Amino acid sequence: MSERYEQPRGHAQPERPRPKEPVAAGAALDVSALPTFGFGQRSPMWWATLGLIAIESTVFALAIMSYFYLRSHASVWPMTGMPPDLLWGTLNTVILVLSMVPNQLAKKASERMDLPQVRLWMVLCMLVSIAFLVVRGFEFAALNTRWDSDAYGSIVWMLLGLHTTHLVTDAYDSGVLTVLMFTGPLEGKRFVDVSENATYWYFVVLSWLPIYATIYFGARY
Amino acid sequence: MTDRDAELLEQTWRDPPGFFGWFCAINHKTIAKRFMVTTFIFFVLAGTLALVMRLQLARPDGHVVGPDLYDQMFTMHGSTMMFLFAVPVMQAVAVYLVPLMVGARSVAFPRMNAFAWWIFTFGGIMLYVAFFCNVGPDAGWFAYVPLSGPQYSPGKRVDMWAQMITFTELSGLMEAIIIICTILKMRAPGMTLNRMPLYVWTMLATSFMVLFALPAVMLSSTALICDRLIGTHFFNPGEGGDALLWQHLFWFFGHPEVYLIFIPPLGFMSSIIATFSRRPVVGYPAMVLAVIATAFLAFGLWVHHMFATNLPDLGKTFFTAASLMIAIPSSVQIFCWIATLGSGKVNIKTPLLFVLAFFVILVAGGLTGLMLASVSLDVQLHDTFFVVAHLHYVLFGGGVFPLFGAFYFWFPKFTGRMLSERLGRWQFWLFFIGFNVTFFPMHILGLQGMTRRIYTYPAQMGWEGMNMTATIGSFMIAISVLIFIVNVLKSRRHGALAGPNPWGAGTLEWSTASPPPAGNFELAPVVHGRYPLWQEAPAPTHVTGLANGDREVLVTTVADALPDHRMTLPSPSPWPFWSAVATTILFIGSIFTPWAVVWGSVPVAIAATCWFWPKRNEAERRRRVEVHP
């Protein structure tokens, strides 16, 4: 699997003047020379991803605020007396932070449209996904509370459950994209999809840090 | 453009024909029309519930319905009006108008748009099926705990409410993203942010508000349904939970929601007032800034719904100040419109009548709002009919009146025919008088101590006169809505032909045929000012170089709308429908067993993957003409 993704043959890269004025002169504005896709904030996908990140950030922020709201009304916190064990959560934080490396490399490769590299780093991202999903299972087991034992347990499970939902859905999305990168049909805009998928992964990792701090240290200090 | 090109363009953008094609439709105008009709059906259903409630309250010791059904009815009325009508109808209209106003051929994500309508419709149907099976929610449209909790509301009624929220808010959030991306990335070349129609500005502000407001109610309704189904204790004080947490989360959504209903009509107002004053709206920058300021301030008001709780007084004072502050941007807009009307050549037609009613009714509702913003008075009036009167003045004045005006205004664009002006005036006056006859007496009833949500009252209270008046008014509203329906059904077939621009308006949607072709514009426009149809346009007038045989659209830059790249939008597909079916099974299943979240996600994942997976022939065709950035 070493075929590279290139501009179709016999289709010379046309000259593409970048208009400085909103509109160029002439009766009609000819856009036929413009590219057929674009990365980053040029793409509507980037804006849609940003919108999704805004929504999910609000959910996480409100859940964290609910945690501290409940904590401020409690005389004992955690109500069970036992904070979650640090081991698995911290291990997962390390894995998640490290996962940004293959993620970044996959993103950069997609922006170069370097198919072999995209495949390599996407597969690596998938392996990391399996690792953190397994560790996440141990995290739930080490919370030292149940969702139905008291309000503390409920909000802790809610926080971890919400984040796990993001892990699962993003791992699945990335899996589908990885398969597509091997089987095709490919076209240029699929590299935009890989790039935006990586953007969203950054959000899933970075949003974990305040949730980690809340779950593991909100119950200690 | 030659006829052959126009025909090709039409074929490219048209929805597939036939019964199965109906489930594959993704054209934004098709979906928007279905969305508008769906929300209007919910409006009529909720209005019918209101009529039955008015009949029950018309006389003391009424026996039309019993207390249990009455509880379900007012909950269904409020929930339907808020979640299934007022917010989604604004998005439905926007999905039709925004692409036309910004000169685009489509919304940014047409399949997601179809999905959003399907999932909304399924959620609404679920709620009404539940209601007809005597499982309608009965804890009020804001479902306060502990009443809505597992202890005081056993059974499935409140679960149906909480899950309806999940359906509708999912749809609302998706529509917000679609509208934002369409506005920011698909405007015609030359339509800088500074030249965007005011209506488009209001939808941009509204959609951003949706992103930050709706998550709060999704989170809280999820917590509620978890409390009810799997034994969590978010709102259970016995286990460290807190009932006020519900109120905070709900109103953090609920107050901005009022503005989700109120801000889009500000855009209707600006469009209608400019057209019927025959001049641009006065103070464009002030109008835009006022809309943005309103959107920000709306997030600082939620506690004024909670003045009757035990929150610290200092906090309440802050929220009083914030509530009063919202009057500043609102009045800036009202003064700008008055200046526009005052300095223009006013042409009084039905759309303008509805807009003028806004001034009367919204100002009255706003003034009672200022009264309620005072903590001491609010504690007195809380949970009385005064609040019912206030909220209907605000929502009718700020939402429903401009919405009907907008419908009269844009109906020619939707159908190619004019609504009857004579029936329109009958409808307007019946609506205006009926509305005031219904809701004005409720102020006084509230001051006299009639609490809201009581299913009847004894004769000794002396409330029957005003209650009977309100009931008579409500039937005037009903007749008025009936006239509207007759007008629409009649005019759709036999109304006067409208032509592209019957009102002589200035924005882009009026430059194309009525109804617009499937691809919206035969030639994609280039824009040189705020009211392109009212000014001499220098060249270039339109865009060339987009393939007519492909769903190709132009993507422009965010601020300056410079041409950036060409993008091919997806073709019609049944998978948004099947994804919505799978999601519905998951949501409804999870009311009955938490495991539905696990097994239900398998069909959702399959359907979503089929939705995404590209077709080989289409991808290869596109790849042959691809130009790399």
Topology:
The complex is a heterodimer of chains A (221) and B (629).
Chain A: E1 28-30, H1 44-72, H2 86-112, H3 115-141, H4 151-183, H5 188-217
Helix pairs in contact in A: 1-4, 1-5, 2-3, 2-5, 3-4, 4-5
Chain B: H1 3-13, H2 18-24, H3 28-58, H4 67-102, H5 110-132, H6 157-185, H7 198-229, H8 243-277, H9 284-297, H10 313-325, H11 327-343, H12 350-372, H13 375-381, H14 385-415, H15 421-447, H16 464-494, E1 542-544, E2 552-556, E3 563-568, H17 575-592, H18 596-599, H19 601-612, H20 616-624
Antiparallel strand pairs in B: 2-3
Number of helices of chain A: 5
Strand order of the largest sheet of chain B: 2-3
Main sheet properties of chain B: 2 strands, antiparallel
What does the radius of gyration of chain B come to? 25 Å
Features:
heterodimer; A: 221 residues; mainly alpha; 1% strand; elongated; B: 629 residues
